Amino acid sequence: MSESLAAKAAALDAADELAGARGLFALDDAVYLDGNSLGALPAHVPDRIADVVRRQWGQLRIRSWTEGDWWTAPERIGDRIAPLVGAAPGQIVVGDSTSVNVFKAVVGAVRLTADPARTDVLVDATTFPTDGYIAESAARMTGRRIVPVAPGELAGALGPATAAVLLNHVDYRSGRLHDLPSLTAAVHEAGALAVWDLCHSAGALPVGLDAHGVDLAVGCTYKYLNGGPGAPAYLYVAHRHQAAFDTPLPGWTSHRDPFAMTPGYAAADGAVRGRVGTPDILSMLALEAALDVWDGVSVDTVRAKSLALTDFFLECVAAYVPAGAVTSLTPAAHAERGSQVALSCADAPRVMDELIARGVIGDLRRPDVLRFGFTPLYVGFADAERAARVLGEVLSEVRAEMPAEVAAERP
Ligand SMILES: Cc1ncc(COP(=O)(O)O)c(C=O)c1O
Ligand SMILES: Nc1c(O)cccc1C(=O)C[C@H](N)C(=O)O
């Protein structure tokens, strides 16, 4: 271990104003760098869920829909997420998966543009696959076509035929942060609507949905928002679009008067229009409880720590990992970096298995990407130092077993 890096980690941890938040989570001795896939469990959630199951469901039963405020949970919890992504209240509704919300948002965006000459839906060519699959179907159903575009080439691809653009704020594989303000402005300049997927940015960095005039957005809650496995996702529809938002999934809970149970559909006003069916209360109330860890926490502080953590991790990787053994896919520039570091290397599946066996939990994206997610609420600088040190040990061992010519030619 390098004394100087370990000492630096200790000093950074001592000065970390978020250090106390780690105690809010159920964690063990492992270094958990997979919060960009599944956030850790906030320690108070099990008791809250036990109350939901035992008292609200077990004793109050049907009365919980009203007395327990179950019915309004989707929009109430949406308003808890809103400040974390820079949205005023009344624009976010929680429910369904991200995939389903991508469908609502893309079809909704095309219907909002309502111009048959706008034939194209542009989609981030590097997107997490579900967004691409769903957008393709949404385009087909609305008589549009999909045009895959790398976010860096978006400006040249926009034009009078563009109806809507679906982009990821942070790339799931590389950790690259895309410039939401300027890309949204470019989309608007072309007369189209911008739909953003915030899965890898919400809870890790400021998003500024309202400030940057985003039209629609979706995101999951099981990563940096720590809502739990399969926690419901959310849909943002900007106030100015809500009256005309024509959801492709007009389920009864988005009706103006659901309990009138009329055959004709009349859409509710506001964010509620994004609802579909009965909310999944157990997951939803686990998420609501999990959001308590954000009380008094500023997203700007989280962002500052996230950048310091990823900077420090990269510094430790440079010091501990044999030269040429890894290549960072994550931009060095802060303005282009999310909250994860992605490193490509030879024998990546084996390297990640070894890291996990030694208590450093990241994940693998085939064929050769090691992903390390940094959740500032519970990851510290000593964690970053240990992760890089163990990575260096593993890579030294793996490379020692490789034929010399393979080790030399493979990054
Ligand atoms: C960018 C992005 N979009 C969507 C998803 C997943 O969507 P869903 O919640 O529907 O599984 C993920 C991760 O699983 C993701 O990283
Ligand atoms: N949602 C996931 C799941 O149900 C199982 C395993 C992983 C996931 C993920 O979230 C993957 C993640 N979106 C990614 O960035 O690759």
From TrEMBL:
<feature type="binding site">
    <location>
        <position position="197"/>
    </location>
    <ligand>
        <name>pyridoxal 5'-phosphate</name>
    </ligand>
</feature>
<comment type="similarity">
    <text>Belongs to the kynureninase family.</text>
</comment>
<feature type="binding site">
    <location>
        <position position="278"/>
    </location>
    <ligand>
        <name>pyridoxal 5'-phosphate</name>
    </ligand>
</feature>
<dbReference type="Pfam" id="PF22580">
    <property type="entry name" value="KYNU_C"/>
</dbReference>
<comment type="function">
    <text>Catalyzes the cleavage of L-kynurenine (L-Kyn) and L-3-hydroxykynurenine (L-3OHKyn) into anthranilic acid (AA) and 3-hydroxyanthranilic acid (3-OHAA), respectively.</text>
</comment>
<keyword id="KW-0378">Hydrolase</keyword>
<feature type="binding site">
    <location>
        <position position="252"/>
    </location>
    <ligand>
        <name>pyridoxal 5'-phosphate</name>
    </ligand>
</feature>
<feature type="modified residue" description="N6-(pyridoxal phosphate)lysine">
    <location>
        <position position="223"/>
    </location>
</feature>
<keyword id="KW-0662">Pyridine nucleotide biosynthesis</keyword>
<keyword id="KW-0663">Pyridoxal phosphate</keyword>
<dbReference type="InterPro" id="IPR015424">
    <property type="entry name" value="PyrdxlP-dep_Trfase"/>
</dbReference>
<feature type="binding site">
    <location>
        <position position="222"/>
    </location>
    <ligand>
        <name>pyridoxal 5'-phosphate</name>
    </ligand>
</feature>
<dbReference type="InterPro" id="IPR015422">
    <property type="entry name" value="PyrdxlP-dep_Trfase_small"/>
</dbReference>
<comment type="pathway">
    <text>Cofactor biosynthesis; NAD(+) biosynthesis; quinolinate from L-kynurenine: step 2/3.</text>
</comment>
<feature type="binding site">
    <location>
        <begin position="128"/>
        <end position="131"/>
    </location>
    <ligand>
        <name>pyridoxal 5'-phosphate</name>
    </ligand>
</feature>
<comment type="pathway">
    <text>Amino-acid degradation; L-kynurenine degradation; L-alanine and anthranilate from L-kynurenine: step 1/1.</text>
</comment>
<dbReference type="InterPro" id="IPR010111">
    <property type="entry name" value="Kynureninase"/>
</dbReference>
<feature type="binding site">
    <location>
        <position position="200"/>
    </location>
    <ligand>
        <name>pyridoxal 5'-phosphate</name>
    </ligand>
</feature>
<dbReference type="GO" id="GO:0030429">
    <property type="term" value="F:kynureninase activity"/>
</dbReference>
<feature type="binding site">
    <location>
        <position position="98"/>
    </location>
    <ligand>
        <name>pyridoxal 5'-phosphate</name>
    </ligand>
</feature>
<protein>
    <recommendedName>
        <fullName>Kynureninase</fullName>
        <ecNumber>3.7.1.3</ecNumber>
    </recommendedName>
</protein>
<comment type="subunit">
    <text>Homodimer.</text>
</comment>
<feature type="binding site">
    <location>
        <position position="99"/>
    </location>
    <ligand>
        <name>pyridoxal 5'-phosphate</name>
    </ligand>
</feature>
<dbReference type="InterPro" id="IPR015421">
    <property type="entry name" value="PyrdxlP-dep_Trfase_major"/>
</dbReference>
